[in-house]
Write a structure and sequence with these properties.
The complex is a heterodimer of chains A (353) and B (362). With 353 residues, chain A is an alpha+beta fold. Chain A has nine helices and 13 strands. In chain A, strand 12 and strand 13 form a beta hairpin. In chain A, the strands form three sheets. Chain A has a seven-stranded mixed beta sheet with strand order 8-10-7-11-9-12-13. In chain A, strands 1-6-4-5 form a four-stranded mixed beta sheet. In chain A, strands 2-3 form a two-stranded antiparallel ribbon. Classes of the chains: A alpha+beta (353), B alpha/beta (362).
C-alpha cells in the first residue's frame, strides 16, 4: 500500500492530532525488540493482563495439562472502526476466540495475543484496548499466556489482532452433525444482526445516530450452563455470513433440512431499519454474541429456561425445526409459503435505491 | 401478530379473485416494474403463496440490469485511468462487462469506491483535490434528483475534480414500450413506489387511458404489495384505472422540489436500455450550464463507448426485463449463470429478477 489519502470513515475514532507528545505514540522502535519494546510490554500488557505465565516473558508458555481432549482455535480481527458501540476490537478478539472454543463444547483456558500495530497509533488508544482485553478475559475466565507485538510502517488500518485459544473439552460432551435427528429444534439466544448493524453505523458514513450496540460478548458461561442441561446436538456462533449461512452449514453437514419460522425470527426494529436502508438482510448479517443450537425436542423447554436466566440469553427462543425433507434451509414466510434460504454469495453489496 | 392475520386475509382475497377471474380467462399476468418489488415479492414468499394462475413478472426497474454492456466496459476503462477514482453504488461492482467487472478492476489496483450517495462522493472529491472523481450516475427518477442537488452544490462550491457520468433512465417511456410490445402480454402493472414518490402518478396515465391496462403504485411491505394486487385484480373485473396504494408516500403531483431539481440540471435525451434497445426521451443528460460536470465532456471516449468486442452469450436478460420470459426459462439460469459468477446483469444486482428467482424461487 502506498501513501493513500485519508479515508473519510473515522467518525468513531478521535482525530489524528499532530503535535501530541511523541512518547505518547507507538513507534517502529516499539516493535524492534529493544528496551522500548520491553517497557511497552511491562507497562501496558503486563499491567493490564499480566499473570504468572505471561510475566516470565519467555518465548513460549509452559503449563501442565490435565488428561482431556483439547480444542485449539485461531482467529484474526481486522474490524474497522476499532471502537464501536457495544465493544471494541480488543473485546472482540477475546470473545470471538472464546466463543469458537465454547461452541465446540470446550472450556476456554488459555489465549495467545498477537498485535500488528501501525506506527503512530496513540498509546492511549492501545491502552484502552488492553484494558478491554483484560476485562473480557477476566469475564470469560481465560488467561493470556503468550503474545507478540509487531509495529509496521504502513497499513490501511491502525491495528490488527490475532488470538489463538486453547480449551479443554468438557468430559462427556459429544456434539456433532451426526447426532442431529429430524424433529430436533433450532434455538438461538437472542436477536440477530446487531454486530454488523452497529459496525455499519459506527463507520460514520451515515449522518444518523442509532442506539444500536454490537452484541459482542463471550458466551462460554451461557454455553456451559446449557451443556450441563444436556440435549444439545450441535452448536455454532453465526458470525460472518450470519444466521442463514450457519444454518446452511448445519444442513450440509447433517444432510437434513431445516425449516425456520419467519415469524419467530428475533430481529430488532433498529437492525431491521439499518438493514433496509443499506439493502442488507439481517439473516446474513454478522453476530458476535449469538449461538445457534440444535437440540433434542424434549430438551427445548429446559434449555430455553436455562438460557433465559443468563443476561446473554434473555431473548432465547426456538426459531425452527430439523426436517427429513425438504433438504437445505427453508424459511416459512408469514404468508405460510416456504422459500429457500441459501448461502450468501460473495459479500452483500449496498443497493442503489 | 395482527399484521400477519391481515396479510393472510389479503392473500385469501387474492386467490378468490383469481379464481373468479379465471372462469373467463386462462390466467392473469401482472408485472412488478420495480426491482425492489421483485425482491420483496420473492422475499416475502408472495410468488409462491398466490394461486399459480396469477403470474407475477419482473419488469425493467432494476437500474443495474438496464445499463448496457458498452457502458459497463467504459466504466471499467474509466477506472483504469491513473489518478482517477470511480465512485459507484454497490450494485454496479460485480456487473460483468466484456473486460471484467469494476470489482475485478479494483482488485487489479483501480480505485473504485462504493458510496451511498453522490454527495458522499462530492465530499471525497473535496477532501482530495489532487485526484479526479467520477460518479457513475446510474438509477431512475429516484436517485437522479439527489445527483442533481449534488451537482448544484458542486457548482456552487466550484469543485473542479468531480464529475458525473449520467446514465439515468426514466421509467414511464420504458413502460410505454412494454405496454405496446406484441411480445409481452401483461394484464396489469404494479408501479414503483419510490420513483412515483418523485414523479407522482400522472406520468402513468397513458397506461389506463391509452392501453386500457390496470395500474397501481405500491409500497414495499408485504401488506402493500398484497393490497396492490387486490386492487389490480378488482380493476380487471371492473375496468382499468390508475390507483395509488402507497398513499403514505406518493402524491398525485409527486415531489415538486425534486422535479424542479431534475429540470434545473438535466434535460431528456434518448437512452439505450439493455434488453429494450434505444428508447426516445428515456434518459437524462446535463443542461448546458452544468456541462462542466458531465464526465463525457471531460472524458470524450465515454460519449461513444466502444462496442467492438461484444461478448456473445445465451443470456436472455433482455427478455426477462421485458417480461417476455421468467428467469428459469433462460438456459443459463442457475446452471452457468449464478450470483457467484453471473453472466447477465439480472443475476448480479440484488434487485435483478434472476437473482431474486435464484435466491428465493428455485
Amino acid at each position: 500500500m502506498t501513501g493513500k489519502e485519508q479515508k473519510p470513515r473515522v467518525a468513531w475514532n478521535p482525530p489524528f492530532v499532530t503535535g501530541y507528545p511523541l512518547e505518547e505514540r507507538i513507534l517502529l522502535s516499539h516493535g524492534a525488540g529493544g528496551r522500548k519494546m520491553h517497557r511497552l510490554i511491562r507497562e501496558m500488557f503486563l499491567a493490564r493482563f499480566g499473570n504468572r505465565l505471561l510475566a516470565r516473558l519467555e518465548d513460549g508458555a509452559v503449563f501442565p495439562m490435565p488428561r482431556a481432549q483439547l480444542c485449539l482455535t485461531t482467529d484474526s480481527y481486522v474490524v474497522q472502526p476499532l471502537f464501536f458501540p457495544g465493544g471494541d476490537i480488543g473485546k472482540l478478539a477475546v470473545s470471538g476466540t472464546v466463543n469458537d472454543l465454547a461452541v465446540m463444547g470446550a472450556t476456554p483456558k488459555f489465549l495467545s495475543l498477537s498485535l500488528v500495530i501501525r506506527e503512530g497509533m496513540e498509546r492511549r488508544r492501545l491502552d484502552l484496548l488492553c484494558r478491554s482485553i483484560a476485562r473480557t478475559a477476566r469475564h470469560a475466565g481465560v488467561t493470556i499466556v503468550t503474545g507478540d507485538t509487531k509495529v509496521i510502517e504502513h497499513g490501511p488500518d491502525e491495528l490488527y489482532i490475532n488470538t489463538t485459544g486453547l480449551g479443554l473439552v468438557r468430559p462427556g460432551v459429544k456434539l456433532g452433525p451426526e447426532l442431529v435427528r429430524p424433529d430436533d429444534v433450532v434455538l438461538i439466544n437472542g436477536p440477530i444482526g446487531e454486530h454488523e448493524a452497529a459496525i455499519a453505523v459506527a463507520r460514520g458514513q451515515f449522518r444518523f445516530r442509532t442506539r444500536l450496540r454490537s452484541d459482542c460478548t463471550p458466551l462460554n458461561r451461557l454455553i456451559e450452563t446449557a451443556l450441563k442441561a444436556g440435549g444439545i446436538r450441535l452448536m455454532r456462533d453465526p458470525t460472518r455470513g450470519g444466521l442463514a449461512t450457519t444454518l446452511n452449514e448445519f444442513a450440509l453437514a447433517t444432510g437434513l433440512g431445516i425449516v425456520i419460522d419467519e415469524e419467530r425470527l428475533p430481529i430488532s426494529r433498529p437492525v431491521q431499519g439499518v438493514a433496509e436502508l443499506l439493502g442488507l438482510d439481517p439473516l446474513y448479517m454478522a453476530n458476535e454474541g449469538k449461538v445457534v443450537m440444535i437440540a433434542a425436542p424434549q430438551a427445548e423447554k429446559r434449555l430455553l429456561a436455562l438460557l433465559r436466566r443468563n443476561p446473554n440469553g434473555r431473548q432465547a427462543r426456538r426459531i425452527g425445526t430439523v426436517v427429513r425433507t425438504p433438504k437445505g434451509v427453508w424459511l416459512r414466510t408469514r404468508l405460510g409459503s416456504l422459500r429457500p434460504l441459501i448461502m450468501l454469495e460473495g459479500e452483500q453489496l449496498p443497493r442503489i435505491c | 401478530m395482527s399484521g400477519t392475520k391481515l396479510e393472510r386475509t389479503l392473500l385469501a382475497r387474492i386467490n378468490r379473485l383469481v379464481d373468479d377471474l379465471c372462469r373467463r380467462r386462462r390466467g392473469i399476468t401482472l408485472m412488478e416494474v420495480c426491482g425492489t418489488h421483485t425482491m420483496a415479492i420473492s422475499g416475502f414468499g408472495i410468488r409462491r403463496a398466490v394461486d399459480p394462475r396469477l403470474r407475477l413478472l419482473s419488469g425493467p426497474g432494476c437500474p443495474v440490469c438496464v445499463t448496457s454492456q458498452e457502458e459497463i466496459d467504459a466504466a471499467v476503462a474509466l477506472a483504469r485511468i491513473a489518478n482517477l477514482t470511480v465512485l459507484t453504488f454497490g450494485d454496479m461492482m460485480r456487473v460483468p462487462g466484456s473486460q471484467g467487472s469494476l470489482e475485478k478492476a479494483k482488485a487489479q489496483g483501480a480505485d473504485v469506491r462504493v458510496v451511498y450517495s453522490a454527495l458522499d462522493g462530492l465530499r471525497l472529491a473535496q477532501a482530495n483535490p489532487s485526484r479526479e472523481f467520477v460518479f457513475l450516475g446510474v438509477g431512475f427518477e429516484t436517485t437522479a434528483p439527489t445527483v442533481a442537488a449534488t451537482v448544484i452544490e458542486a457548482k456552487r462550491q466550484r469543485v473542479k475534480n468531480f464529475s458525473v457520468w449520467p446514465m439515468f433512465k426514466l421509467i414511464p417511456p420504458a413502460l410505454e414500450v412494454i405496454a405496446s410490445s406484441p411480445k409481452v402480454d401483461v394484464d396489469g402493472f404494479i408501479l414503483p413506489g419510490h420513483v412515483s414518490t418523485v414523479i407522482g402518478s400522472s406520468p402513468y396515465r397513458f397506461l389506463s387511458e391509452q392501453f386500457r391496462k390496470p395500474a397501481c403504485i405500491a409500497g414495499f411491505e408485504a401488506l402493500d404489495i398484497l393490497q396492490a394486487i387486490v386492487m389490480l385484480l378488482e380493476q380487471l373485473a371492473t375496468g382499468p384505472k390508475l390507483e395509488i396504494q402507497y398513499r403514505r408516500s406518493v402524491r398525485p403531483e409527486g415531489n415538486r422540489r425534486a422535479q424542479q431539481l431534475l429540470a434545473q440540471v438535466f434535460k431528456r435525451c434518448d437512452a439505450t436500455w439493455r434488453g429494450l434497445g434505444k428508447i426516445p426521451e428515456s434518459g437524462l443528460s446535463f443542461r448546458d450550464p452544468f456541462q462542466e460536470f458531465d464526465a463525457r465532456f471531460r472524458f470524450p471516449f465515454l460519449r461513444r463507448p466502444a462496442s467492438a468486442r461484444r461478448r456473445r452469450t445465451f443470456c436472455r436478460c433482455g427478455e426477462v426485463m421485458l417480461g417476455a420470459i421468467v428467469p428459469p426459462e433462460c438456459r443459463l439460469f442457475a446452471r452457468t449463470c449464478t450470483p457467484e459468477s453471473p453472466i447477465g446483469p439480472c443475476m448480479v444486482s440484488s434487485e435483478g429478477a434472476c437473482a431474486a428467482y435464484y435466491r428465493y424461487d428455485r
